[in-house]
Design a protein that fits this description.
Blueprint (H helix, E strand, L loop, with lengths): L4 E5 L7 H8 L4 H5 L1 E7 H10 L5 E4 L12 E8 L13 H19 L5 E4 L4 H6 L7 H9 L5 E5 L4 E4 L9 H4 L2 H17 L7 E5 L14 H15 L3 E6 L1 H4 L10 E4 L2 H12 L4 E5 L4 E4 L17 H16 L4
Parallel strand pairs: 1-2, 1-5, 2-4, 3-4, 5-12, 7-10, 8-9, 8-10
Antiparallel strand pairs: 6-7, 6-11, 11-12
């Protein structure tokens, strides 16, 4: 069987992205599932290899090879030439911000042209990206812009839970005004389609969480459930989707109970990600719904507190690469 080709973007050159890439691609596991190609910076990755005392080599390519993929041999398509001696861990400058976006832009071009089967992204610094003139709150929103996707959603795949977010990178004070019937319904539809198309579940059971404590207590603690969430659930049901809720978020994630749902729709970032990261921090993978290609990502950030110290664990990147490879094999009508 021909293994899928997975493009891996390096992310922030001053974070742990370069380190986890060279560590992950020194292991056998990714190569047993796919043919990985890195989009990044040669000097930055060379420094990461040197700092980890690895025997891994870099081979610069202009087009994707069909064969020759081996552990400790990284095929690299370089899209920046950063002055590595001037870089400081945890201190990305404008050039780093431009480079982060360039890696993503090029990987998107390659996957859309059919040269790649999927992409896996390493963490970026959103502030540096904005300083470079790319005004997006995160990876997901940038990717949606690059392909003109009208609606996208972040799905987190864990061993116990699959969680999809209605809102993503917003200040908490702004969340409630983004909780609209249309947005919730769009997220439910993306979830339903994604479970069928990529995960092979023909009739997914979807749970929807509330926004307010105790789902608003009939309006006493907030009216979003009554005015926005319940109408979205009713509309989804009328369209044939198997949806229930809203459920109070504080009691839904009871590990001692039985989970009767395939996937959970969460109203905001921390509501959904705290439970999945507590249970599955090394295993959970971010998968973007609504894009015309498969994109996975690690579920952690740039980790500046350990960047450059050799402490970064590549396990979650390996999991994200394997998930991208598996999704590309399992996709239905893609």
């Amino acid at each position: 069987m021909t293994l899928p080709k997975i493009g891996i973007t390096m992310g922030d050159p001053t974070g742990i992205g370069p380190e986890i890439i060279v560590k992950a691609l020194s292991m056998k596991e990714p190569f047993e599932a796919c043919r990985p190609i890195v989009f990044g910076d040669r000097a930055v990755l060379s420094k990461a290899i040197q700092m980890q005392n690895l025997s891994t080599t870099l081979e610069v390519i202009e087009k994707i090879p069909e064969n020759g993929y081996l552990p400790q041999k990284i095929f690299l398509h370089p899209f920046s030439r950063l002055e590595v001696t001037s870089l400081r861990f945890g201190q990305p400058d404008r050039a780093c911000g431009e480079a982060m976006v360039k890696y993503i832009e090029e990987a998107v071009k390659w996957v859309r042209s059919g040269k790649l089967d999927a992409i896996t992204t390493c963490p970026i610094n959103k502030q540096a990206m904005n300083a470079a003139g790319y005004f997006f709150p995160g990876h997901t929103e940038l990717l949606a812009h690059l392909v003109g996707a009208s609606s996208v959603a972040m799905m987190f795949l864990g061993s116990r839970w699959k969680i999809v977010l209605v809102t993503t990178h917003l200040p908490l004070k702004d969340v409630s005004r983004w909780i609209t019937t249309n947005r919730i319904l769009s997220t439910i539809r993306l979830t339903d389609e994604g479970m069928k198309e990529y995960l092979g579940i023909p009739h997914p059971k979807i749970a929807v969480l509330g926004l307010n404590p105790h789902c608003g207590e009939g309006g006493l603690l907030g009216e979003e459930e009554k005015k926005e969430i319940l109408p979205a659930i009713a509309e989804a049901k009328s369209l044939g989707m198997d949806v229930e809720g809203p459920f109070p978020a504080d009691s839904f994630f009871d590990l001692s109970g039985r989970c009767d749902f395939h996937v959970v729709v969460s109203m905001y970032h921390d509501q959904g990600l705290i439970p999945i990261k507590m249970l599955d921090f090394k295993e959970a993978v971010n998968f973007t719904l609504g894009l015309p290609f498969i994109r996975t990502s690690v579920d952690h950030g740039t980790a500046y507190d350990i960047a450059g110290k050799g402490l970064a664990d590549p396990s979650n990147l390996v999991k994200a690469i394997l998930t991208a490879a598996n999704l590309s094999k399992l996709k239905i009508n893609y």
